[in-house]
Amino acid sequence: MLKNAYLKRVYDDTVQNNPAQPEFLQAVGEVFESLETYVAARPELEKAGIMERLVEPDRMVTFRVAWEDDQGRVRVNRGYRVQFSSAIGPYKGGLRFHPSVNASIIKFLGFEQVFKNSLTSLPLGGAKGGSNFDPKGKSDGEVMRFCQSFMTELHRHIGARCDVPAGDIGVGGREIGFLFGQYKRLQNQFNGVLTGKGLRFGGSLARTEATGYGLLYFTQEMLRHLKNDSVAGKTIVISGSGNVAIYAVEKAQALGGKVIAMSDSQGYIHDPAGIRLDVVKQIKEVERGRIRTYAERVSGAEYHEGCRGIWSLPCDLALPCATQNELDLEGAKLLVANGVQLVAEGANMPSTAEAASYFQANGVLFGPAKAANAGGVATSGLEMSQNSIRRNWSFEEVDAKLHDIMVNIFRQAAEAAEACGVPGDLIVGANVAGFRKVADAMLSEGVY
Ligand code: NDP
Ligand code: 2IT
Q: pTM higher than 0.90, yes or no?
């Protein structure tokens, strides 16, 4: 419940103006609650209409994506791109291809991206896009034709200095390659219009690993500064088994942690001996298969139907890396009862508001998504830098910069939390630190 009259008025108007957009309203509500103290101390924000302007994207396009399947039948999906804010840099954010995609999901992701990108300290505005297209079960040819059709409309809205999309759920290296090829064909321009590109055509080393690695660098900072501890020796549960989850497991293991479970949308695997990541990579990256196959290949591992059951496993660290609202109050209660010490979000908004509050109320360290998973977009920013100067940095150079960025994000969030009188509350800290830079830029740039 918002106490500040200005935030409450803008939030109520946002509810009125965005019926049937629960995820978007959830994201706005969480940010507004965190900003109460900060906004109350800066009345000039109300005069300049900063909050009203932030919840209304610069623009949003939706478009028809028609493509032919392998049987020659025409299929139609809906495409989206929301360009939320360019206050501090060109629009930047991923594309999600998943049947659940709708305007609410794209807007929640775009809104979050504004503050996340600000936290990276790189000059990046906020955007998001995608489609309700489901790449699962489609042939490479079908995915290519879909991507070509999607880009045939999207290309007129984006550009290396205007809006730079990347991957998200259902969009990885294969899709980015097809999208890049079509952009080049339409514009006759070879430039850094997308990130997450293949290494032979402008991609950056370490971008594939960046979100998962960055999550662990952030987790390590949280443990070091707030508990004088480290990832080494911890029992860890990581949900999901896509790009973010896989490289979170890789870095967690490299730091000496023991990851005992992973999941996909259908169920989870429990391997008390520690996840064998080579097997997961073979199933998910090579075969594009289901996580249940893991239990058929690794003795001692079990598969359980239903992805939410993963939170019933006792662990020290829980890292949700699948999707929004995958960890609710029920899951949070189980984790707390089983002694979890830290939750850090690799996915975007994976914890419901009730779950996040429950963790904080019970002394669990909580690393919110916009800080903890910012390593992906930060490394996209590094890919843009390399494209601009026409050079490629080594894996070690990019990884070292990513590490510095995550350390800096933790420091900014921790200091902002302290300044707001809630030390250790990284939800407040990340929102305030991300917001104030965007708000200051908006105040300087005049009314638009
Ligand atoms: P992938 O498509 O590579 O993997 C997604 C994973 O999440 C899969 O295991 C998938 O299972 C699971 N999943 C997807 N939807 C659901 C659902 N509705 N319920 C349960 N599980 C689900 O995506 P990423 O790993 O790239 O993205 C994962 C999360 O991380 C997302 O929230 C994304 O926004 C966020 N993120 C991604 C970044 C990136 O750089 N890629 C950067 C920052 C955040 P299944 O295969 O069964 O669908
Ligand atoms: O949610 C995210 O930050 C991403 N999917 C990555 C965006 C990007 O532009 O690299």
A: yes
